[in-house]
Specification:
Beta-Lactamase
């Protein structure tokens, strides 16, 4: 009502002396009250009576009636104001009861506070415990972006005074008030907004202040007690709204946590059921004598993936070693590897393909499957040891040439899935590395024999312990060479026994059933290669006689001169035979003349360009390094052997 537009005072109707309307001095003021006239209008009846020269008692009566009417008007104004305030508080409480959006409720509180207090600006700040300061949460009527983004340190400004004392504070002139701590940041924001009079009341949650609600004007103003109380009521509702929102948030968080817990419980239940299922399946496999691939298939179905059993030599080495050392399945890229080991021996691995993330229970399932696999392998090993002994006995008989009947040899080999008519290589294997005592050395030999027997069985060969090491008879399949087989066997056996294993190989041999003594000669050749590897410092490697150049000629049991000559200068011999050239003669003269083209052309009675052309052709046939010291030595030896083998050609 105090801000209503003031209408021009109407001339009261007169019906009695001195212009006083009929009905006594109160009548004109009752009419003004009924019309809701402004305060200024209540002076008109008194002024009119004085202008008309009314008696003093009548004027005094009008003065008393005026004062009474103004009191009534003030009371009515107060009641209407309190009604509006109560209505606003009720609406705010109603908003709070149906709280859905905290921002909307706080905005409504600030808007209603500004409207009922008739201020230019209203705003609400909240404490930020994480940053240790206070920030603007909601503003209404603000026009300054700087002011709307203010952050205040704890205890600073009028809000800091309110927060510290937990009591309302009001200042009629902010910049002249020295009761609170002024800072450049806050003063600049208040000045930018143009605020002068500010009222602040605390937002309380129990004994704690969580923020401050403000009402402010851009001019000096005195805030009444009722206005302070009203803003305090809005602050209480704002605090309740924040508390309710926090409770709702905590409730929602708790419900979300319960939902996640239920999901986890459901997942765990499903995982436990899967674990129980795989346990039953694995137990059934063991009881009915299933193999490692049956275990892999069962685990694949339970884990909804592809599980494979791999040999120790084909599994990822780093993942396999980590799994063996830790005793758990480990991730390798998008796969999981669980080592299959027995004691210190690595038997292989179970590999789960394409599962980057694996549930801990499923991981344990894979580990249990690896354990069952190791037990099955040990059981199978016990059953295979008899077969290994039979394989060893057959190889011993071939080495000692005790059984000369080819038919019996073939029958014994067939029962072991070996074919003595195929091309084979005899390999002599020995563990390298010092042993601390005789027991450790004996244990290492047993591991080597076991690994060699397993390797022979899987490759349809034979193995036996002999001469402090192991001898293997393995088939040779194209395109492998004896060297390839020796190196692969050294690597596989070394991985199995966790120590370097050196392997010497013979040249390929055939017709073992018809000529059992061939195995004895081939074994001697393999032993010589093994000794040569040790002398050359190549422990842990594998090689055949052909790898040693002319040294291989010395190592070979039958001294295969033709093969050495063919490997060394065969392309040149063939070229001369087909084209009728004299490359061999040129080579002999070249080496005889100290590898001097000038002296060579004199010895051959040809032009030096002819010598150069012939040597260039030799380089294309034998390779660019044919004049290196080692190659030159072998070529000269081959030329000499070739001349000795066919003297009539020279």
């Amino acid at each position: 009502m105090s801000r209503d537009h003031v209408q021009p005072a109407e001339r009261p109707r007169t019906g009695g002396a001195a212009g006083v309307p009929d009905g006594g001095p109160e009548a004109p003021f009752l009419e003004l009250l009924a019309r809701g006239a402004p305060v200024e209008a209540y002076e008109q009846p008194v002024l009119l009576a004085r202008a008309e020269g009314g008696p003093d008692d009548r004027i005094a009566a009008l003065e008393r009636a005026k004062l009474l009417a103004l009191r009534v008007r003030s009371e009515l104004e107060g009641r209407r104001r309190r009604e509006a305030e109560l209505s606003a508080l009720f609406e705010t409480a109603h908003d709070l009861a149906g709280l859905r959006d905290l921002d909307a409720v706080l905005q409504a509180i600030v808007q209603r506070a500004r409207s009922l207090l008739g201020t230019d600006v209203a705003y609400l700040t909240l404490n930020d415990p994480a940053r240790g300061d206070t920030y603007m949460r909601v503003t209404e009527g603000s026009v300054s972006a700087h002011f709307q983004q203010l952050r205040l340190g704890m205890g600073e400004g009028l809000g800091g005074l309110v927060a510290q004392t937990t009591r309302p504070y009001v200042t009629d002139d902010y910049f002249e008030d020295a009761r609170f701590q002024h800072t450049h940041t806050i003063d600049a924001g208040v000045r930018d907004e143009g605020l002068v009079a500010i009222l602040g009341v605390p937002l309380m949650l129990g004994p704690h202040v969580i923020g401050v609600l403000f009402a402010s004007d851009r001019r000096a103003r005195h805030f009444e007690r009722g206005q302070i109380a009203l803003l305090g009521s809005f602050a209480a509702l704002a605090a309740a709204a924040i508390d309710t929102a926090n409770l709702l948030s905590e409730t929602r968080g708790a419900l979300a946590g319960l939902e996640r817990a239920n999901e986890i419980i459901r997942d765990r239940s499903a995982v436990i059921e899967r674990a129980s299922d795989v346990h039953d399946r694995l137990a059934e496999l063991v009881l009915r004598g299933g193999g490692v691939h049956d275990v892999a298939a069962a685990v694949s179905e339970v884990l909804a993936g592809t599980v494979e059993f791999t040999e120790a030599g084909t599994a990822p080495a780093a993942a396999l070693e980590a799994s063996r050392a830790e005793g758990h399945a480990v991730r390798h890229g998008s796969d999981w590897t669980a080592a299959v080991a027995a004691g210190g021996e690595l038997l292989g691995a179970l590999v789960l393909r394409g599962h980057r993330d694996l549930d801990p229970v499923d991981q344990r399932t894979l580990e249990r499957a690896a354990m069952v696999t190791s037990l099955l392998l040990l059981a199978r090993r016990s059953a295979a040891e008899a077969e290994q002994r039979v394989r060893g006995e057959l190889l011993d008989d071939l080495l000692d040439a005790r059984d000369r009947d080819p038919r019996l040899l073939r029958e014994r080999a067939a029962r072991l899935r070996a074919d003595l008519d195929a091309t084979h290589v005899v390999l002599a294997a020995r563990i390298d590395g010092p042993a601390s005592d005789a027991d450790e050395e004996a244990a290492a030999r047993r591991r080597l024999w076991s690994a060699a027997s397993h390797l022979a069985a899987t490759r349809q060969g034979l193995a036996a312990a002999r001469d402090g090491g192991t001898v293997l008879l393995l088939p040779l399949a194209a395109p492998d060479t004896a060297t390839d087989l020796a190196r692969r066997t050294a690597r596989d056996l070394g991985t199995a026994v966790h120590q370097p294993v050196t392997v010497g190989a013979s040249a390929p041999v055939t017709g073992l059933a018809a000529h059992p003594d061939t195995v004895t000669a081939a074994y001697a050749e393999g032993r010589r290669c093994l000794d040569a590897l040790h002398l050359l410092g190549r422990a842990g490697d594998g090689a055949a006689a052909e790898d040693f150049g002319f040294l291989g000629l010395l190592l070979a049991g039958e001294r295969d001169v033709g093969a050495f000559v063919g490997r060394t200068i065969g392309p040149v011999v063939t070229y001369d035979e087909r084209r009728g050239t004299e490359l061999l003669r040129t080579l002999e003269a070249y080496f005889a003349c100290g590898m001097s083209p000038a002296r060579t052309k004199d010895a051959l009675h040809v032009h030096v360009n002819t010598v150069a052309q012939r040597l260039e052709r030799v380089g294309r046939l034998l390779g660019e390094d044919w004049q290196s010291p080692s190659r030159a030595l072998e070529i000269q030896l081959a030329l000499r052997l070739h001349r000795l083998a066919a003297p009539e050609r020279h």
